[in-house]
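Pair request: fold both.
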Amino acid sequence: MNYPGYTLVRREDCPEQHGVLTVLKHDVSGAAVLLVENEDTNKAFGIGFGTFPSDDTGVFHILEHSVLAGSEKYPVTSPFLQLLKSSMASFLNAMTFPDKTVYPFATPNETDFRNLMDVYLNAVFCPLAMVDKAVFEQEGWHRDADGTVSGVVYNEMQGALASPDAQLQNALERAMFPDTAYGFVSGGDPASIPALTYEKYQRVYRRHYSADNCCITLYGKMDMAEKLAFLDEHYLSRMPKGTSRPRLTVQDQQNGVRVHIPYYTENPEPDQVQCALAWYTGAFADRERQLGVEILLDALLGTNQSPLKAALLEQKLGADIDIGFDDSTLQPTLELVLRGATAETAPKFAAGVKQAVTDLLAGGIPEELLLASLNAMEFASLERPGSLPDGVLDAIYAATGWLHTGDPALLLHTDKLFASLREKLSTGWFNDLLKDLLLAEPVQVIQTPALPKKDEEDAAPARTDGKLVLDHPLTAADLGEGKKQTPGSKELLAGAELLHHPSAGNTYLYLYYDLGGMAPEDMSCLHLLTDVMDELDTEKHTAQELNTLRNTWLGSSGEWMDCWTGRQEGRPCHAKLIVGMSMLERSLDSPPAIVAAMPIALLVSSADSFSRLA
C-alpha cells in the first residue's frame, strides 16, 4: 500500500485487535503514526508526547491544562467544554502520566471525528498559551492581591497530595528514582509550583511538544488515507524534525534504601503506621517477564485467601496489605503496602515477606493457581473491562510502547505472550521469578502519623468568551442510522425464559431472580450477602478453591442487586438479584467445571461459612 508523505515501517495482522496494524514514520517531521484498522465504529484518535519532568513544578500537568484553553484556529476560552455540549464523543479527555502526556478521544460519528481531530491537533501544536501569559497564570499559578497563591493545577494538587497514601507513594518513588524523571511529582507539588516561571514553561513546551517527539494513533473503521493526508498537509509537513528528542535515563537500582517520613494529622493513632516495600521487576521491553509478574501477583496476592497474602496476614503485622504494579514505565516496579501497622511491627514487614516467600518456595507455587490467574488475565486482555473505549486504550498503549522501545505496536500483541507463559507453568519458571523478585532487598518507606507543625500558610483573566466555530459543525444529517444491533432470540429452558444475543469472541450469562416478594427490610441483608458471597465456602469447595475455579474458567463473575422502573399497573419498581459471569468460548468445553465455578453455587454455602463471618 502507498502512504504519501510517510515511510512504511511495517504492516501486520493483529488478532487481538481484530484487524491490521500499520506502523508509519512521517517523512518531514519524524512523527510516529500507528494505524489500527478494524470494524469498530467507535473510532478513536490519540496523540502522545514524551514528557519527562526535571523538577516538582508540575509543568507538564499545567501544559496539559493550558493547551486546552484555546488555540490559533479556535481562539475561545474553553473549546473542549463547548465540544462536550455538541459532540457525540464517547470519550474526550487528556492525561498526564509520569513520563508522557496523551490527548485521546473517541466518537462513532465521522464528521465529529474530523472536527475533534482538528481541534486536538491545533490545541497541542498551536496553543495560545505560548503568547498569552494569562493562561499560564490561570491554569498554573498566580499570586492574588492579598499575597495568596492560586491556580487550577495548584489548587488541584493541594487536594491530591493531602492524603497519607499520596504522600507515601511520592516518597517511595523518590526513594526508588532519586536521579530520574520518575522521582518527581509529575502532577506538581504545591510547594514547588510557584517556582515555575512563564519563560521556563514556554521553553519546556517547545522542547517536548514537537512532532518528532510524538506518537499518533488512528483507530477503527475509517478512511485512513484521508486522515493521513490531513495530518500531513495541515500539521506534520509544517514541522521539520529537530536535532534530537528528549530521552529518559535509567536509574541505578536503590535496593536496600530505607526512608522514614511523617504524616501530619490532628489525631495521630499508634496503629495507623504504613510500610511500603518496592522492587524493580526488570526491563519494560521484556513483556513476557512483566506479564509473568502480573500473573504471579494475582495468583499469590490477589485475595485474602491467596497463599502469600494469607501467610503475610497471619503474621499480624498490620490490618491489611495492598499490592501495586506499574509496568508502563521504563523501569517497572511492584510494591506491597502494609496498612494499619504500628511503629514496632512496620519494620518487621520486609523480613516477614522474605520468610513467607521462602516458605512458599519450599513447596513450590501450586500450578492450578498460576493457570487460574493466567486464564483470568488472558480473558481481561480480550474483554478489556473498564470505562475507556478500546481505541483510547490503544492510543495510550501505543504512546507507551513507542516511548520506551520505539515500537507503538508492542503492547497490542499479547497472544504469543500468554501461549509462551502457559508452556512455562510446569517448568518452575514462576518459582524462579518469585525468588528473583521478592527475595531481593526492597526499597522501604515507613510513614508514621504525627501532630502537625505550626507553620504559617499562606481569578485569572478570562479569554475571549466567543463561540467555538468549527469548519464542519455536526448536524442531524451527520447522525446516520446508528449501529444496527443483531436481533436476538427467545426460548423456554427448564421453565425459565432464555434470551440469547450474539457476541463476538466471549460468552456472557446473566441470571435474573425476581425479588418482588421480598420484604423491604430484608433488602439490606441481601446486599450484605452479595458483598460477602465470594468469601464463603460451599459443601464441596472452600472459598480459595472456588476463587481458583472462577479464575480458571470464568473471565469475570459477580452478584448484585438492581432495580428498574416498572411499566405495569401497580408495579412501579422491579427489583432483581443478578448473577453474572463471562468466559472464553473455549471454556464451554468443560461444563462441569463451569457449573462449579458459577457464583450461583455459593447460594448453597454451608452454615459454617456464615458462622465464620458472624
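--- second member of the pair ---
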Amino acid sequence: MDRRSHSSFLVSGHYTKKNCAVKLDRPLGDRRRRLLKGMATRAERLAAISDPARKARVQALTGNRFTWGVNKEIQDASPGVLCDIIHELAVDFDAINLSCAFRNLLQAQHAGLARAVVDRSLGTLEQRSLESIETFGHKEISGILHMMAKKGYTPFDPRLLPALEGRLEVVAVAGNEDWQTLNRRLDSQTVANVAWSFAKMGRIPGPRLMRALEERIWAILETFKPQEITNVLWSYATAGSTPGEGVVGALEGRLLALIEECGPQELGNSMWALAKMRHMPAERVLKAVEGRLRVVIHRLKPQNVTNVIWAYGTLKRVPGEGLMGLLLGRLRETLEMTIAQDITNILWAIATLGLPLERGVAEMMAQRLVALSRGVNQQEVANALWAHATLGLMPDRGLVVALEERMRVIAGGCSPQHISNTLWAYATLGLKPGGGLLQALEARMRVVAEGGSGAPAALPQEIANTMWAYAKMQHTPDRALVGVLERRMELAVQQGCHTQSMSNYLWAHATLKITLGQPVMAALESRILAHHAALCTPREVTNILWAYAASGLRPSKDVVKALEERLFGLFWPCWPFWPWRRRRPSSCACSRPRPRAASAATGSPRRAKARTRRRWRRGPGGPPRTGGTGP
C-alpha cells in the first residue's frame, strides 16, 4: 500500500485512513512522535502541490528522509520496541525499511518477548514485502535472503521466497544491460551473498537467474575478494548445481592472484568446495595453496585442517612434502576443539591416500574419539572402523568397545553402505561384532537392502562386501536376509556390477555353503559374458571357478569359455615354453619374473648379435628350437 494514499497522521496516537482506525498499543515516545509529525507534514505538502513534476521531486526528497528516519528508529530499537514500530508503521515501509527491519528482527535476541509477538511482526513484514515486491532492489533482496539463511528462518508465507527470487532475476538480468547505472548492477558481495544464501537454504536458483549471476561474475571478476570467491565456490558445491563453462576455472585463477590475502577459512573452504565438485585445481594453484598453508598453519582451526585433508583424500592427491605432518601437528595442538566428524574424515582421507599413520597420532585420535563416542553418527563409526582396517591398524580395545556400544544404539538409522563398511572392517581386522551388534545390523539390512525406510537401496558392492564379511567371520545370516540380498542383487547387477563384487559374492556363498537361485545366477552369468570377463584379475577368475566347483554348480559353456580366454590372455605373455620370449613383458599378470642365470660368453660379440637377430626374425610364429629348455 503506497504512502501517498494516506490522508492524515494523528499525533495523538490514532492513525486514520478512510474508514479504518487503529489504536496504538503504547504511548508514543518523543522520537516516534517527531517521526509521525514529519510524516503528517509531508502528506500535507504533497496534497498542496499541483505540479506533477514538482510533486515527484518533493516526494522523492521527503521519502528519503522518511526512510532514513525509520531505519534509525529500527536500528536503535530494542526487540519489543521494534515489534511496535513494525505494527504501527509497516504499512508505510519501503523496500529499504523492510530489509532493515527483517535483518534486525531476525538477528535480535528475543529473550523475555512472547513468541507470538515476534511471529506477528515477521508475518507483517512478509505480507508487506509481497505487496511491494516490485520496488525491491538487489541489495534489499540479498540482505533479506542472507539473514534468513544465516538464522535458518523459514517464512510463514510460502510465496515469499519464490517472489524474492523472481524479483532478483528481473533485477539481475536488467542490471547486466550496458545502459544501467552502476548502483543498479550487482556487485561481487551481492553475488556471493545471494549464491551462499540459496545454497544454505537448500534452494537452487532458476536457470535464468544462474546465467545472470554467472554473467555478472565474468564482468566483475577482478573485484572479487577471497571470501567472496570462497562463498561462490561453496554454494556450487553445497547446492550440487553445475557451474557454467569456465566459471570455476576463472574463480580459481582469481583466488591464485589473491593467494597472499587468503586466510585459513578461505583456504580450507575453497579446497573443500573444489574437491566436493570433483574439480582438480591446476598444479600452480595447488602449489600456491600449499605454500600459503605453511605460512598460516598456526592459525588453522580443526575444521580448516579437516577440510584440507579431506579435499586431498577426495581428489586422490598426496600433499606436498611435509605438509601432512604440519597439518596433523596442528590437529594435535587443537585436539580439545575437534569434533568426531573431524577425526573420522581425517582418518578416511589418510586411508584413501594410502599414507602411513604414526602409532602415536592414531592413539591420539582414538582417545579423542572415545571421549566423543556418545555423539557420533553411523557414518562416523563406519568411517573410523573402515580407515583402521584399510590402514592395517588394529584399533585400541577401548575404541572398539565404545564404537560398538554406540553403533548398537543407532543401528536403526544405518544405510546399506554403513552396514557393509562396518562389517567389512570387522572382518578385515579379524574381529567379530559382539553385544548383539551383529544381529542388530542384520535386522537393519533386511529392512533397507531393497530401499525400505527411506534409505537408498543396496548397491552390488555393498551386498558383496556384506556377504564377504559374513563368510570371513564364519557367520551364516538368516535365510530371510539371504533372500532379500539375493533379490536385490538380481536387480542391481543388471544396472552395473564390478568383477570384484561378483567374485566376492559367489565366493562368500560357496564358503557359507549357501546355494544361489537360478535367477541371480543367470543375471551374474549374463554380466560376466557382457565383456566383463575380460576385466577380471587372475584372483577373481579363480575365485569364480572355485565358487562354482564348491557349490556343485555347473557354469554354462559360454562362461567357461570366456573365463578360459581371460586366463589364457593373462598367462600367454609369460608362458615359459616359447624360446623367443627372452624377457617377460611388464604387463605380465603372473608372479615376478625369475632372475636370468649368468652364462659364459660364447663366441665373438658379432656372432652373438647375429644369433639374436635370427632368433627375433623368426618371431612368435617360428618353430621352437629343438632340445631347448626355455628361458
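Observation on the second member. The first strand starts at residue 14 and ends at 17.
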